[in-house]
Design goal:
Structural class: alpha+beta
Distance between the termini: 25 Å
Order of helices and strands: EEEEEHHH
Number of domains: 2
């Protein structure tokens, strides 16, 4: 399946100068996203909201794997039909479940 997004895997890192930023990068080190800890207006007396920037960056970084897992689940359900059984089916389902679990672990920062 053709996609228009930057190919994965993506990874997260802490911005070296400002710890309020987490960075999501692609394989070549290109920045995919900057995730700020503070959001909202910066004009007094309004106060910015503190966000879980590292957790949000982990979720963003997991996007390619989550997309791949969702695509695999869709293709399996579309191509297999309702009556497929046997060891090949189980192997395919286990492989897709493993991809999904790895993507979920990455998304919640437990890879």
């Amino acid at each position: 399946m053709y996609t228009k997004h930057t190919p994965g895997p993506w990874k997260t890192s802490q911005e070296s100068i400002d710890p309020d930023w987490a960075i999501v990068t692609a394989n070549a080190g290109n920045i995919v996203a900057n995730v700020n800890r503070l959001t909202g207006p910066d004009i007094a007396p309004l106060v910015s909201t503190i966000m879980p920037h590292n957790a949000n960056a982990a979720l963003v970084a997991a996007a390619p794997e989550l997309f791949d897992a969702a695509t695999a689940i869709y293709n399996l359900s579309k191509d297999a039909g309702p009556n497929v059984t046997g060891p090949i089916w189980r192997d395919m389902v286990c492989e897709i479940a493993s991809k999904a679990k790895n993507a979920i672990d990455k998304a919640i920062g437990e890879e």
